[in-house]
Predict the structure.
Amino acid sequence: MKKILPLFLCIGFIRCSDAPKTNATTGSSTEIEKATLACWSSNWSREPGYDISIGLNLMDDYLFAKGYLGKRTVADYKRFLTSDQVIEIPDSVAGSEKMRLALNSDFGSEPNVAGMIACWKANWFGKISTIDSTDVIARTGKLVQELSESGPPDVTTAAQKFFTGLTDADMKRQLVKNISYFIFWKNQSGQTHIIISHPDVMSGDSATIDLDRKIK
């Protein structure tokens, strides 16, 4: 079973030959968010029309229904994403396949991370100056860019920067919610928060993201 790691922790280690799929955008916060999500999805999977947010929203709704996210306030997300909780989602759960693909990409091929970062630079990082610096898309973009250049984040430091000043409305922005799961995939002690089992995996194993493996 192929395992890959979130884009923030593998920049600099991945070499992809695919040409980046980019999305042109103007400077509004909404357009920047839309274009960034689109290029994330198009480079994450080779499936036409793939939308990574579908799987992540299904997972978010599952965690909420099970009581792990409280009322889904900023404080609730911070508590869960920086805690030592480890949640296992069995493959029998409806939508688990989409959740797994959103976290692991296609099992048949690695995502075009290089292309994704290239279009993020063009559509997000490079557009930050066109919107108010207090806008959550600008603030989060600066942090993501810092993490992409510095390697695996210190969870405590990253959480302090990510959640400070964040409102409940900000947390509902799709790009912000998606990014939060990728930044805080592992907590400070190195535990993986969410494990999604897979029917093709031998008993005792799971299709999880291996954050410590560096793909070259």
Q: What stands out?
A: The chain is about 45% helix and 5% strand. Residues 1-5, 7-26, 201-216 have pLDDT under 50 and may be disordered. The beta strands are 87-89, 194-196. The CA atoms of residues 89 and 196 lie 5 Å apart.
